[in-house]
Design a protein that fits this description.
alpha/beta, globular, 11% strand
Amino acid sequence: MNPEGFEPTASYSQVRLAGFPVYISSQFALGKVGLRRETLEELGRQLTRIAAVLPSGALKSLQQVPFWIELDTGPSGAVFHYSPDWLNRHGMNPDKARSVEIQNARRFLDWTRQDQPWLILHELSHGYHWMHIKAFDGVIRKAFEHAQASGLYNSVDYAGGFRRKAYALTNEREYFAELTESYFGRNDYYPFNREQLREFDPDGFHALQQIWGE
């Protein structure tokens, strides 16, 4: 660790998976080589699947987003970091700005295997939103505000077998990321897939068509 309390970037090993740059913490060398391998395999599977479904232009943009794989630096399975200032204020490596961090490798694997097989696409969607915020933010906000006003997502089926308020209602960023999971893959909240999204939330569906293409 450096004086700031986080692992310096220079101590990370680097690989590329499906065209994405990946930084791997040296902490895995301390008896966690198997977990490192599992995490890389799962991330590689998800990125390969994402590369197969995204439009080529969007994929090329998103392949500029780095990944950081950590043993345990926080509570989240994966998170997109927007701001170097925020990272600095919280004692974290500012080099992780505009990237996806797998903060807890074991939690990432558990969440993925339980009910979030497109978790990485969700986080990459935040990156795409950030990259194109001037072009797309108004489209997303309009669909999100309609979803809020309509009450569509106040109580929906969840993969755990019960109903709950959809995570998509958190804010317009999470709305876009959640719907992107449904649009290209499978979400853990209803609507679970593209056809259900088209029927359940046509405004959201058409917003995603505008942003991602048909």
